[in-house]
Amino acid sequence: MTPVDKSELSSFAQGIARRHVLLAAGGATASALAPWPAGAQDAAYPNKPVKVIVPWPAGGATDVLARILAERLTSKLGHNFFVDNRPGATGYIGTQAVISSPADGYTLLVMAPSLHTFHAAVAKTIPFDAVKDFTPVSAFAQFPSVLVVPANSPYNTVSDLLADARKRPEKLTFGSFGNGSAAHMIPELLSIFTKTKFLHVPYKGAAPAITDLLAGRLDFMMDSLPSPMPHIRSGRLKALAVTSKARSTLLPGVPTIAETMPGFDVILCIGLGAPAGTPASIANKLHDAVRQISLEPAYVEKLANLGSEPSSSGSPEAFRTFLSSQRELWTKVATQSGITLD
Q1: Cis upstream peptide for 46 (omega within 30°)
Q2: Given 2.60.120.1440, 3.30.450.30, 3.40.449.10, 3.40.190.10, which CATH number is that of 145-259?
Q3: Most CB contacts within 10 A, which of 39, 129, 222, 243?
């Protein structure tokens, strides 16, 4: 295994942060897509119900976010957008269903980092390409991860935790939801940035990991903000820092890791994609609707209640660039850390 230089990875991650600004702030325009003449059918889109496939079971955070967006797209575009849950095979079944659907805009995929970024970076084989096999539309929700510790933990800052980690290499434990999950990969990036070593404890799902963290059997976790937010609000967990470059509007009193280590920036995005070959005019129309919805106060409030924030890419092509750059970053992290899936 060829080692990845920490300074190189840091510089690369800072480049990702700059590209994330384009994703969230609209730094590119819809004209970034290659021109594609819109026929009468495209102009009338949609003229029948649109299926939004969520490749995970109903009731999870991604599913709830998708349903909120589908409701607003229905209102905005005048035809029913309905969620179709297609769980199974770690999300492969639902994803493959979209890939094999006609490229007409009437079957869409909810894309989440757990499968379409992190899993794609660590799996030895994967039956699809998260960048090439789809026409990207836009991100529609985003959230950082948050570094949390038990309420009675002696650590009150990231610096406290890192100082102890340097004194006791591979003694501080962190939990994840399995090898190659976001809760595994993001602490590994932190380890690379800080030249520290933590002990990874994988679990079969979120519930047992959170349970052990609350009980003090783990030293910390780095989980996507919506998951630990209820425990942070109740005081059962302490939030030491968020992983985004800027402080989260949902936890404004919690510092960023970047305030201790400039250049550290991880943001997780839920997005919308369509089968490869979907006309650009349709992708642009969907993108523009998502952008408008992201500015609606009621939408912002609903997402905030779930520990999330609205997002819209600068253009469909900007979303493609973001997906590609994220896969490149996490592939580097997996290589440096020796993470693979059998």
Answers
A1: yes
A2: 3.40.190.10
A3: 222
